[in-house]
Amino acid sequence: MSDMKNTLSKQEVQEIVNEVYPKIEKHYGISKFQECTPYVELHRNIYEKYSGEEGMEGDEDSCHAEYCSMLNEISIYYPQMKSRQMVIETLVHEYQHHLQSPIWFKRYYSQYGHDYVTHPYEVAAIAEEKEWVLFN
Fold first, then answer.
1. Strand pairing report for 39-43 and 65-68
2. Of 4, 122, 2, nearest to 64 (Cα)?
3. How confident is the prediction along the chain (136 residues), in pLDDT tens digits per residue?
4. Domain boundaries, the chain
5. Measured between alpha carbons, how far is 44 from 18 in angstroms, rounded to an integer?
6. Helices 102-110 and 120-128: angle between axes, nearest 10 degrees
7. CA distance 13 to 82
8. DSSP 8-state code for residue 37
9. Entry pTM
10. Is 43 left (phi over 0), alpha (psi -120 to 50) or beta?
11. Closest-CA residue to 31 (of 85, 94, 100, 82)
């Protein structure tokens, strides 16, 4: 571990991604909604990612990662990663969103009133995290 907060360094997270992500891609395959598997990028936080400014800060943010279907990319906010297991679970979780319909992802929120806790795609992605051991 790289510091007293028990977080992994950017380099440590990148090394885990480099090692396990190809296994995840091979296991789950490519989404029928995309032309290729998602690109994985690391950012310090969501503010830095969207502002494009290094060192950008904002209100306390606990976002660990996100998948963007428009860009077909997984963003991992590396300071949130506390362990190897967490990095792998995060990749598995976000990869599930790559496999899911982007239209239905939005529809469950807008037309059916789901929130993060009740959204069927989030429930499925969280349940799939237990499979992290396949890629360790």
1. unpaired
2. 122
3. 444 468 899 999 999 999 999 999 999 999 999 999 999 999 988 878 887 777 777 776 678 999 999 999 999 999 999 999 999 999 999 999 999 999 998 888 888 888 888 989 999 999 999 999 999 9
4. 10-131
5. 18
6. 120
7. 10
8. P
9. 0.89
10. beta
11. 100
